[in-house]
């Protein structure tokens, strides 16, 4: 383990994760005169957005690039010239708006790639000491990292902003949210990313695919697979829905055309629009087992007993939740239902609407933890709630930096 003793004159902010919200936080930190270091586990920035880069955002450019990013893009000579009402794919957002900023060396941001954050603690303090006391803030954070060669490193910071998202930490397949027996042993057979069916049709054609989940990601996968199967009769999709009648995240009079198309398409598949798609309602995965090259999935179906299907591929898109182990040694008060930070989770529970467009920031206070100067922002801050939108992330960043400025 190498220990860097780099006590600094300016307060140092460690931003965890080089996603869009990590970028926004890093830019805000630079503007406010902090030393900013961003630790990214992958070998490139925007890693999660790239992972589903073939998928189109349902929000348009106008909502997906912050005013702060636009200002920096202009100043650095990479002006964003797009049709603001169009929606980019993940790759397009990364290519046109995020990566030009990450890669611009004139910005005083240290982007440490291939640095996976393993744990965060306080110098000289354990979790149960100085409970919810500002005195904890006098000790630096210790950030334990693992680099690409597997070597561990330790860095220090005065403020930590966790923007590690939740896409990289998917939920498992089994009933009750725990892995199904056999799931861990057969992990290599379970895909947990939105498959790029359109670019790699050969990987899917002629197969029997078991798909689990009913959120927007699963809906996208179902539509792309059904499109591939259309009129050929050689590809079969078994789509397992946990509920008898999912809500699909549909919104009445939806102003977002792409979201409406997605939820309408999913509904119509569930109603039997494609002979290639078999719908299993009220389905709970009981067990996975290997059978030569195939995988057997045993399911419980509502009150109507069990069913066993033999499949070539499994796509599990059952949502995700952030990596909470990172801050096990910090005083973070989490919601017992959503696993999001408590104050924000409570504010979200109070929101009547399930429409993400109705979401705004909930104020700096909702982002504070008992642990001073530790913030969870972005997708991860919403825990199991899946209504997070990037524009909420921009607001969260402003709220946190305004609060830090007040305290300074
Ligand atoms: C398919 C899909 C479609 C979406 N569509 C929309 C949309 O239309 N509009 C909208 O506003 N929002 C949308 N979202 C939601 C949300 O805006 C995105 O998930 C967005 O990428 C969240 O940004 P983020 O910076 O919080 O996290 P992420 O983009 O997930 O970035 C997290 C970063 O942290 C890194 N990381 C993770 N763990 C560690 C670790 N331990 N150490 C170091 N680095 C780590 C990851 O590699 C990644 O680079 C969508 C999400 C998905 C999955």
What ligands does this structure carry? flavin-adenine dinucleotide
Give the rounded overall mean pLDDT. Answer: 93
Which blocks of ≥5 consecutive residues have pLDDT under 50?
Answer: 1-8
Give the neighbour order of strands across the main sheet. Answer: 4-3-2-8-17
CATH architecture of the largest domain: 3-Layer(bba) Sandwich
Count of runs of 4 or more consecutive helical residues: 9
- The fold-level CATH name of the largest domain is FAD/NAD(P)-binding domain
Describe this structure in words.
The chain is an alpha/beta fold and 408 residues long. The chain has two domains: 2-168 and 320-407, FAD/NAD(P)-binding domain, CATH 3.50.50; 175-316, FAD/NAD(P)-binding domain (3-Layer(bba) Sandwich), CATH 3.50.50. 24% of the residues lie in helices and 21% in strands. It has nine helices and 17 strands. It has a five-stranded parallel β-sheet with strand order 4-3-2-8-17, with helices on one face. Strands 9-16-10-11-12 form a five-stranded parallel β-sheet, with helices on one face. Helix 4 (67-75) crosses helix 5 and helix 6 packs across helix 7. The longest helix is centred in the last third of the chain and has 18 residues, at 390-407. It is globular. The two termini are 33 Å apart. Mean pLDDT is 93; it is low at 1-8. Flavin-adenine dinucleotide (FAD) is lined by residues 16-22, 39-42, 47-49, 52, 55, 57-59, 116-117, 163-165, 167-168, 194, 217, 323, 326, 378-379, 388-390, 393.
């Amino acid at each position: 383990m190498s220990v860097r003793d780099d006590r600094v004159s300016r307060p140092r902010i460690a931003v965890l994760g080089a996603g869009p919200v990590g970028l926004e936080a890093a830019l805000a930190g630079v503007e406010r005169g902090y030393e900013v270091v961003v630790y990214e586990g992958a070998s490139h920035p925007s890693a999660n957005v790239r992972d589903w880069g073939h998928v189109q955002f349902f929000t348009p450019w106008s909502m997906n690039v912050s005013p702060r990013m636009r200002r920096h893009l202009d100043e650095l000579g990479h002006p964003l010239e797009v049709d603001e009402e169009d929606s980019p794919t993940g790759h397009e957002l990364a290519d046109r708006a995020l990566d030009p900023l990450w890669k611009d060396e004139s910005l005083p941001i240290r982007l440490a790639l291939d640095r996976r954050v393993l744990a965060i603690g306080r110098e000289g303090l354990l979790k149960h000491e100085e409970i919810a006391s500002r005195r904890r803030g006098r000790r630096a954070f210790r950030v334990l990292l693992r680099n690409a060669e597997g070597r561990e490193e330790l860095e220090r910071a005065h403020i930590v902003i966790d923007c590690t998202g939740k896409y990289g930490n998917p939920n498992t397949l089994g009933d009750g949210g725990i892995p199904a027996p056999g799931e861990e042993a057969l992990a290599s057979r379970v895909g947990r990313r939105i498959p790029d069916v359109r670019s790699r049709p050969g990987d899917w054609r002629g197969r029997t695919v078991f798909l689990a989940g009913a959120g927007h990601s699963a809906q996208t996968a179902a539509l792309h697979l059904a499109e591939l199967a259309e009129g050929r009769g050689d590809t079969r999709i078994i789509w397992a829905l946990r509920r008898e009648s999912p809500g699909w995240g549909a919104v009445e009079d939806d102003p977002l055309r792409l979201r409406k198309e997605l939820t309408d398409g999913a509904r119509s598949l569930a109603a039997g629009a494609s002979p290639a798609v078999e719908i299993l309602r009220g389905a709970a995965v009981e067990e996975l087992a290997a059978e030569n090259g195939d995988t057997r999935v045993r399911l419980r179906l509502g009150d109507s007993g069990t069913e066993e299907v033999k499949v070539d591929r499994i796509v599990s898109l059952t949502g995700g939740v952030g990596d909470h182990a990172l801050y096990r040694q910090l005083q973070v008060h989490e919601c017992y239902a959503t696993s999001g930070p408590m104050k924000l989770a409570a504010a979200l529970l109070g929101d009547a609407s399930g429409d993400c467009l109705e979401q705004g920031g909930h104020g700096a206070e909702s982002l504070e933890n008992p642990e001073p100067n530790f913030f969870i922002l972005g997708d991860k801050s919403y825990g199991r709630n899946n209504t997070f939108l990037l524009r909420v992330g921009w607001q969260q960043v402003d709220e946190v930096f305004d609060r830090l400025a007040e305290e300074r």
